[in-house]
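During the no-cost extension, the postdoctoral fellow (Dr. R.K.) reprocessed legacy sequence entries with the updated structure-token encoder. One reprocessed record is reproduced below for audit purposes.
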Amino acid sequence: MSETFTGRVWVLGDDIDTDIIIPTEYLAMKTVEDMKKFGFSPLRPELAGLIKEGDVIVAGKNFGCGSSREQAPEVVKALGIKAVIAKSFARIFFRNAINNGLLLIENDQVQEAVKEGDVMDVTPGEKLSVNGQEFEIASLPDNLLEILNAGGLVKAMRKRNGLS
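Re-encoded structure tokens follow.
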């Protein structure tokens, strides 16, 4: 996951909780694919239909707060979001996202430097580049990179144990 990718930016605010990411009433749907069209609907009903494969979300503090539902990062990933960059993440959301192969990057400066629709280059573990500015980002530990590169924890463990 150290290869640079480019994505269009969607800007969200602070305290985007799991009920905003995927409201409770859609959790009974059979698959995450069924749920994804309702992603972020309480905040921006049109957003799920506008997100394209490879886009990135830039948000404020406490992204993913609320309940520990695993469907929240699954829906974000199913929408095609390649990375979420936020000032901070709720701890359980962070772990659920990594376990599902969704890249999260903490940075407290990028939100003020972007506007929706900007195009950002992301080099995981190194930097973010947008609007002529570069932002250094922390590298991830090898064990988390292994999980992200495999597409999630289950896939990483299957690969490690020669099952895939």
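The CA atoms of residues 18 and 41 lie 11 Å apart. The radius of gyration is 15 Å. The remaining legacy entries will be reprocessed before the final report is submitted.
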